[in-house]
Amino acid sequence: MNKVLLNSILVLGVFFINGCSIKEYKLFQTETKKQEEITKISEEDYEKEATYENKIAPNDRLSITVYVQSGQGSQQMSSILTTRSNTSSNTKEDDIGILVTQKGTVRLPLIGSVELVGLTEDEASEKLIEMYKLYIKNPYVKTEIKNQRVIVIGEVKKPGVVSVTNGTMTVIEAIAQSGDLTDLAARNNVKIIRGDLRNPTVRTIDIANIVALNESSLFLRPNDIIYVQPRNLKGYNKAFDEIMPFWNMLSSILDPFVKRKQIMGDTE
């Protein structure tokens, strides 16, 4: 009887602690359950996401290179101005680019301070070509945003910052570069957090259901946060780990009394 009672206390304790444990392990929660609903994207919004081009923003790092023809009649182009490092090493620091100021400007040789914020890479190149034409004959400018990235956290094997090298990236690509999902990942509850973190847009994607995927958008934008929520099992495991030391101590204290009662019962 006593063992049954102790086991009942253990089970109740696990469920009690579990509520707190699950809540602790889930980020970006709200008081409503609306965030658990799968986000559906219209065809019009999907087309916009599929063709989206990132725009230059303050604190971006740009690689800007200006080319001219090597000689009269030559089709070969040579670089005369570049924001890249001239050293032979290939570390990330060497190719970090030039910083866009909070005012949205960069300072370049010959033309000085130029506002590029809000422009795509192609639009920025076209603007710089027109400005360099005042100083250089037939210039060609290549502009690249170097620090495009997304952040992957939660139940992935290698959480962290993932670089966007192709101008765009999908949720599947970001998860693959993060080492795939863990066994405790809630595959039907992947969050995409976008925009100002004080008032973000939060989407929920079910990557385990092909029908749900057809109604969602897997396209990401730079600086998106992908959060893979844990399954409730992680909360149960955590609750069990937390209560086991107390349970072992309680068992060691009560065990002599249980054995004594059994002995006394046997002698009677």
TrEMBL record:
Protein name: Uncharacterized protein
Cellular component, GO, one term: cell outer membrane
GO MF annotation terms: polysaccharide transmembrane transporter activity; porin activity
BP GO terms, sorted: monoatomic ion transport
Main location: membrane
Residue intervals of the Polysaccharide export protein N-terminal domain: 50-145
Membrane topology reported for the UniProt record: Multi-pass membrane protein
Keyword Transcription regulation: no
Keywords, comma-separated and alphabetical: Cell outer membrane, Ion transport, Lipoprotein, Membrane, Palmitate, Polysaccharide transport, Porin, Signal, Sugar transport, Transmembrane, Transmembrane beta strand, Transport
A Pfam family: Poly_export
Residue ranges of every copy of the SLBB domain listed in the record: 148-228
Subcellular location: Cell outer membrane
Keyword flag Hydrolase: no
Organism: Arcobacter cloacae
PANTHER family: POLYSACCHARIDE EXPORT PROTEIN GFCE-RELATED
Similarity comment: Belongs to the BexD/CtrA/VexA family.
InterPro entries: Poly_export (IPR049712), Poly_export_N (IPR003715), SLBB_dom (IPR054765)
Signal peptide annotation: none
